[in-house]
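Record type: monomer structure entry
Structure origin: computed from sequence
Chain ID: A
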Amino acid sequence: MTELRELVKSGDVRAVARAISLAESGGPEAEELLAALYPRTGRAYLLGITGPPGGGKSTLADCLIAHYRAQGLKVGVLAVDPSSPFSGGAILGDRVRMQKHATDPGVFIRSMGSRGHLGGLALATADAAKVLDAAGYDIIIIETVGIGQSEVEVSGQADTTVLVTVPGLGDDVQALKAGVMEIADVYAVNKADRDGVERAAAEIGQLLAVRDMDEQTWMPPIVQTVARDGTGIADLAGAVERHRRHLAEGGRLEARRRERVRREVRSIITSRLDDWAESKLTGDVEAREDLEALYDKKTDPYAVAGTVLKELEIDNGG
């Protein structure tokens, strides 16, 4: 573990890949490694890219990689792909689309299967980002699966979230609904050479117009792009940089990252409590008897839960 930690800190690509695989597997070794790397995190800027399937998220990410590399920045990419419900494997199409950067030592691209995790990310995405951060990557791009309006988790993981929309894919309807349309810090209307781009941009503008905003509130810019030929990529990167400067003012970035830490700790606690509860309900004789009584309608779910929680001295609302 000590050797792996030092290799990750030095930016060794194989060590980074191994560390991310360890994070995906979980367990005590992963926790030990991540704990050792944690003091070196917080330097990278996390850029989330989300939006509906077919919007060109991967192509946009590919263009942004080239843009940031031209500035001399090291770029890490975590591209989350949907997993097969049968094998658990992922198609890993995002890595194929970014293949031209595969030999660049300043770029690390990792495809991660969602493995059924909801919200558009993989369960280990946050830990993988920490590994890349500790390895010295300046920009970490997190590309989500692309599952629609429920894909909002990325906004809690990224410093800036870019929502990619496309004319003609129903985004004019999505703009009127709650969900993924509300998490964007920057809107990218991609494939802007298509008909209907002005309408798509206008409807996003109408959505923003009804929000309660003051002079301190960030107004998400709407950038038109054509990722296949690089049109608008500099404007998109410029919009991201303006949002970054906005967050830096008044401690907004620090506040956002503090909230991220709080949510992460809560997630870890919840996960461990869930594992404990499952073990308790399946392995404890008294708990199984209570479940049988519950099935026979001799008690109720709240009473059974209260009995279990007494062991942890948790107030269960009674």
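Annotation 1: The chain has two domains: 40-250, 262-312.
Annotation 2: Residues 262-312 form one domain.
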